[in-house]
Amino acid sequence: MLQVGDEWMYFAVVFLLTLSGTRSATGASVLTASLYVFLVMFRFPPVPLEQASRVLRPNGLSSDVPVVAHRAAGHDAPENTLAAIREASRNGATGVELDLSFTADGVAVLLHDDTVDRTTNGSGPISGLRLAHVKSLDAAARHRLRGERFGVQIVPTLQEALQECIKHSLIIFVNVKRYPDKAAAALAEMYRRHPVLYNSSIVCSFEPKVIYKMRQADPHVVTGLTHRPWSLSRHSDGTPRTPSSWAQFWSELLDVLLDWAHHHLLWDLCGVSAVLVHKDFISLDYVQYWAGRGVEVVGWPVNTAVEKHYYQDLLKISYVTDSLLEDCDPQY
After folding, report:
1. Is residue 330 within 8 Å of residue 303, measured between CB atoms?
2. Residues 6+ apart with CB under 8 A from 1
3. Cα angle 94, 95, 97; round to 5
4. Beta strand extents in the chain (DSSP E only)
5. What angle do CA 148, 175, 260 make, to 5 degrees?
6. What span, in angstroms and rounded, lies between the C-alpha atoms of 214 and 212?
7. Beta strand pairing call for 108-110 and 171-176
8. How many helices (H) and strands (E) does the chain have?
9. Which of 168, 226, 245, 328 would disulfide-bridge 276, Cβ 3.0–4.6 Å?
10. What are the pLDDT digits (tens) for 204-253?
11. What are the beta bridge partners of residue 205?
12. Which residues of 113-151 are buried (b: 16+ CB within 10 A; e: fewer)?
């Protein structure tokens, strides 16, 4: 929940901005009061801290920092496969991050991209392929260790992946990029089938709508918002998304507004227990800012030995990595 000082400040800013724009004290008061009522009526309280801690701090007061394998550590094994989940467990991961997608016949499967082209020997959008066809593809076809350490790998369903994670006692970070309603319904069914997930998994997304829909479908699920500042205006390497200076200006303005919303409104509206933030924007002060609000910070992608020591020894927070074995380039 927002701290009392925060609430007064935010609503005071809204009131003053509205007043300066409308020159009407009555109008500014009504708008500010309406916003307050909206937040009180429609925001979700976070899950109990004890439950969130079992997911985000499974080692308790131990000095061991939780390490999450990105796409089940796609550098070490074919990403988002059962083999990768097993490999992550074997290499000491606390948990795995898995990407949720859907086939043409509505089955929840693991796949990061919109298409199967990059990771399999197939082609086309996953949303246009039926499960039977997806299951015929080799999910290890384009991996660097295909043939050397890994044979043919099948694209797993969400059900198969969750069962494998439960078998290996791994914490599960389910990343949802699209289809809020469909994803919330599918995940709610998984939690109904496997109640152990309430204390061993978190649903996270860049899209606040996904998290809000998930809390609507099941308010007892631990959730987190993923965020990379300047993501609307710049690519992951920092280059502008558009050659137009005017379009770039507006996208950067939207980035500023989105960043403000993430830090002052959306997290509270959705009642999240964690924020997953790009590593370049995390500091000790940043971690303490969120700790004061009862929210855990998780950094990504943390891929070098130096970065990992920084997170383990100084920040002492969870991080997501592409490899549990060696330094590697980040996968976005």
Report:
1. yes
2. 45, 46, 268, 294
3. 155
4. 67-69, 95-102, 108-110, 171-176, 201-205, 223-227, 274-278, 296-300, 319-321
5. 130
6. 5
7. unpaired
8. 12, 9
9. 226
10. 999 999 999 999 999 999 999 999 999 999 988 889 999 999 999 999 99
11. 225
12. eebbeebbebeeebeebebeebbebbbbbebeebeeebe
Would you state the structure tokens that stand for residue 191, as one six-digit string? 């939690």
Beta pairing class for 108-110 and 95-102: antiparallel
DSSP 137: S
Q: Using CA atoms, how far apart are residues 230 and 236, in angstroms rounded to an integer?
A: 9
DSSP state at residue 141: T
CA distances from 266 to 98, 120, 183, 210, 220 (A): 23, 36, 19, 12, 18
For residue range 8-38, list pLDDT tens digits in order.
Answer: 566 566 656 665 777 777 776 666 566 666 6
Tokens of 65: 């920092």
Amino acid at 138: D
Question: Token digits for 114?
Answer: 């919109």
Tokens of 311: 């997170």
- Count other Cβ atoms within 10 Å, centred on residue 236: 13
